[in-house]
Prior knowledge:
Elements: H1 8-18, H2 43-60, H3 64-68, E1 71-78, E2 84-86, H4 88-101, E3 106-118, E4 121-131, E5 138-149, E6 152-161, H5 169-172, E7 180-186, E8 189-198, E9 203-212, E10 215-227, E11 232-239, E12 244-252, E13 255-263, E14 269-280, E15 283-293, E16 296-297, E17 304-308
Parallel strand pairs: 1-6
Antiparallel strand pairs: 1-2, 3-4, 4-5, 5-6, 7-8, 7-17, 8-9, 9-10, 10-11, 11-12, 12-13, 13-14, 14-15, 15-16, 15-17
Helix pairs in contact: 1-2
Amino acid sequence: xxxxxxxxxxxxxxxxxxxxxxxxxxxxxxxxxxxxxxxxxxxxxxxxxxxxxxxxxxxxxxxxxxxxxxxxxxxxxxxxxxxxxxxxxxxxxxxxxxxxxxxxxxxxxxxxxxxxxxxxxxxxxxxxxxxxxxxxxxxxxxxxxxxxxxxxxxxxxxxxxxxxxxxxxxxxxxxxxxxxxxxxxxxxxxxxxxxxxxxxxxxxxxxxxxxxxxxxxxxxxxxxxxxxxxxxxxxxxxxxxxxxxxxxxxxxxxxxxxxxxxxxxxxxxxxxxxxxxxxxxxxxxxxxxxxxxxxxxxxxxxxxxxxxxxxxx
Length: 313
């Protein structure tokens, strides 16, 4: 796992595969194995897949020692940046550093194939996702070699590699709950928001308009996407006054923070920190703080509550 730049997916892929270590005290009930069509999974394959889930469970508990126990004493791990960690003790220290720098990080893994090279050696491949408490999920491909020792499958060698998602919708799925039509009202004022997938689900489009007395006073569009270079969700906004700008999205707990930098039609520089807080499946609040125009502070807004239109009751 890259500790200099939070890429838990590397470690996660590794860790997930480690979970493939069946026979560990943290093992869970075997999960249904995915085998070739028409071919039932063997007991050994089911054991490896169950071990992978046990490994994820230990990772999500933040237990570095339990995770290291999924490896052979001389096991090795190479992350997607080419860094190597050799031996159970060194791998345990790597996990300790990960949990210290990213407390609460969770791991999710999908085993894609299990192939036996011999009765006691297997090759597992798949994809792992790291989900931090703050920031955006990351993912990586993994390839793990497992060996059977004293009836238990242990990780002997794991390699992570960069993964390109088939669609950026994978990176934006944390915002999918916003898809739909929303409205906020205060007296005769109304704000309408519509969010939808566009461009083969690689972007989210958020259009908005404000009305006063039934007349539209302002409108705009925001395009939300994934920046593969910075590894974060970003957006670009354009409003009917001629202003535009770029934003960075970051999740902390269940709340989304949007750092916005813009240019007004007269050339003034603007910035703000907007926050979106889900209340339930059909409502959220929005507010704007730290607002500046050419360095001059503006008052914070009061939280505005939005309700989803045509929500199931």
